[in-house]
Amino acid sequence: MSRHIVVVGGGAMGSSAAWHLAARGERVTLFEQFTPGHDRGSSHGSSRIFRLAYPDPFYVTLAVRALPLWRRLEEETGRHLLDLTGAVDHGPAEATTALHDALTAAGRPSHFLTPTQVAERWPGLRADTGALFHPEAGRLHADEAVAAFQQAAWQHGARIRHGVKVTRLAVRGERAEVVTDGEEAVIADAVVVAAGSWTPGRLSGLVTGLPPMRITQEQPVHFPAPDALGWPSFIHHGGAGLPPGAGVYGLGSNDGVKAGFHGVGPVVDPDHRDRRVDDRAVVRLQEYAARWLPGVDHTAPVATTCLYTTTPDQDFVIDRQGPLTVLAGFSGHGFKFASVVGLLAADLIGGAPGPGRFALGPPRAH
Ligand SMILES: Cc1cc2nc3c(=O)[nH]c(=O)nc-3n(C[C@H](O)[C@H](O)[C@H](O)COP(=O)(O)OP(=O)(O)OC[C@H]3O[C@@H](n4cnc5c(N)ncnc54)[C@H](O)[C@@H]3O)c2cc1C
């Protein structure tokens, strides 16, 4: 007999969990506090980088698992979500070599390019001392992907309820009680908490071993560019040509070429932030673009804000304690994995162990 599973949060992770659980025949209700396509969490906008390349083989393997699931989601929903435009990583040799080694060990292609070769192939992008090209990377359409997860979940019978906030969660023996702002109370066989930056507050006192999470407001910008959709995604690793500690990511999208610093924004409360754009940070990205992105119009940036929920080691939390399954701490690099994160949640609820690396518990060492 199917169980009733409640999912709290309709961002990328909760929506993916709803899809996988409903596809396995569970009765699923997803509660999302805001309207469809809202821009107050972490999953909105027209683009996210997809890539297999990580220096750590664990994440390469996870991204390899995510790729066919994105394609399955496209097939189930008829939506176009993922463009493999390739990616260029550039900067210090130790950064690009570590990526090349991890991809090669996994049997995945990549090759080095000189800055001149990069300029010949992508005149809009100027590369630092050395570059690595890897073709199995590119652009996910973020808004479309979240809508697709929810559409697929709905096609499998899930109820997707927007504008409903979960105000109380309580463990009742092997089950959990979920209360909404409409004073609706539901007893669920299991609850998936995928509340993004709201997760630490929502889970307070309910699970043990949740690592501390830093909530920051990040601020990428889009620059106009004539051929934005043809761009590879890119990461300019801190070092050679950048100030110490700085790193820049970017990619082409429907809104132009996006570029941002990774995880440098101010700490905020997700319920009380003014979402005001920091003009000094925009200027720093304009200065970056003037030097390294000759193909964009660096004089016309459009900034947007978004939340990171970052753990001390930037590893995710994907684990179950009793009736509660936690999907959290995606540390500004989770979107590409969303298609497999929901599957891991469904596995946990089905009784299978999760990845030990992402377990709740004492500080993790690796
Ligand atoms: C600027 C930026 C750029 C990024 N770039 C990349 C990238 O290129 N590649 C990549 O892989 N990743 C990237 N990421 C990271 C990725 O987008 C996030 O890891 C991912 O979107 C997190 O999704 P989530 O579902 O955990 O959180 P969210 O999208 O925030 O979803 C959580 C949802 O829970 C809802 N909620 C919270 N509390 C309640 C409640 N009590 N009741 C009901 N609903 C509730 C919220 O309203 C929200 O919709 C980026 C993130 C940002 C901010």
Can you offer a commentary on this structure?
This is FAD-dependent oxidoreductase. This protein has helices at residues 12-23, 57-77, 93-105, 115-121, 142-155, 199-203, 279-292, 338-349; strands spanning 4-8, 27-32, 48-51, 82-83, 87-91, 111-113, 130-134, 137-140, 159-162, 166-172, 175-180, 185-188, 190-193, 214-218, 221-223, 233-236, 248-253, 256-261, 302-303, 306-310, 317-321, 324-328. With 366 residues, the protein is an alpha+beta fold. It folds into two domains: 4-44 and 143-212 and 312-358, FAD/NAD(P)-binding domain, CATH 3.50.50; 120-129 and 214-310, D-Amino Acid Oxidase, subunit A, domain 2 (D-Amino Acid Oxidase, Chain A, domain 2), CATH 3.30.9. The chain has an eight-stranded mixed sheet, sandwiched between helices. The chain binds flavin-adenine dinucleotide. Residues 8-14, 31-34, 41-43, 48-49, 165-166, 194-198, 202, 218, 220, 260, 306-308, 330, 332-336 line the site of flavin-adenine dinucleotide. The site of flavin-adenine dinucleotide has 36 residues, from helix 1, strand 2, strand 3 and strand 20.
How would you summarize this macromolecular structure in one to three sentences?
This protein is an alpha+beta fold. It is built from 8 helices and 22 strands. The strands form 5 sheets. The protein has an 8-stranded mixed β-sheet, sandwiched between helices. Strands 9-2-1-13-22-21 form a 6-stranded mixed β-sheet.
